[in-house]
């Protein structure tokens, strides 16, 4: 007969083994968008590469039949996005900041040209999350300290 202490130990071991993997999967972000040509038509099989600036790690995906691409499970960081399509100029957008659990939409309009030509975008554009209706923002420590506190106290059990 198995005693209760053995069962508890076994469950504790299972939780300790599985919990770090589950906890580590939280906080990743997504970059998604559509690759189009100058007429607005989808560019099929364009190669989209996200390069993490700090580590030079890359993630590569190919746009689908509708021109859409999705790069999932990206660490919160700054990325450079490069897009290559056959018969189009290479597109580069630098310094895309991805926050934890954020989903960014970066649509790309390629211009016709030789594969040796490239278009680089250096300006920081405002990233808009068009995939969810949720409003979210990262709050820094200065702003956190300035947030007013609810200072009502219960007096005699009443507020």
Summary tags:
5-stranded mixed beta sheet, single chain, 4-stranded mixed beta sheet, 2 helices, 159 residues, Immunoglobulin-like, extended, alpha/beta
What does this structure look like?
With 159 residues, this protein is α/β, with parallel strands linked by helices. It has a domain at 27-131: Carboxypeptidase-like, regulatory domain (Immunoglobulin-like), CATH 2.60.40. Helix content is 17%, strand content 33%. A hairpin with a 5-residue loop joins strand 5 and strand 6 (90-98).
Topology:
Layout: H1 4-24, E1 29-36, E2 47-52, E3 58-62, E4 68-74, E5 77-84, E6 90-98, E7 103-105, E8 108-109, E9 118-121, H2 141-146
Parallel strand pairs: 1-7, 1-8, 6-9
Antiparallel strand pairs: 1-4, 2-3, 2-5, 5-6
Percent in helix: 10-25%
Rounded to an integer in angstroms, the radius of gyration calculated over CA atoms is 23 Å
* CATH C-level label of the domain at 27-131: Mainly Beta
N-to-C SSE series? Answer: HEEEEEEEEEH
Q: Based on the structure given, which CATH architecture of the domain at 27-131 is correct?
A: Sandwich
- Strand proportion: 25-35%
| Biggest beta sheet summary | 5 strands, mixed
Mean pLDDT over the full residue set: 80
Spatial strand sequence of the major β-sheet: 3-2-5-6-9
CATH topology of the domain at 27-131: Immunoglobulin-like
- The name of the CATH superfamily of the domain at 27-131 reads Carboxypeptidase-like, regulatory domain
**Alpha carbon gap, first and last residue:** 56 Å
Unreliable stretches: none
Strand segment count: 9
The number of helical elements comes to: 2
Structural class: alpha/beta
Q: Label the overall shape.
A: extended
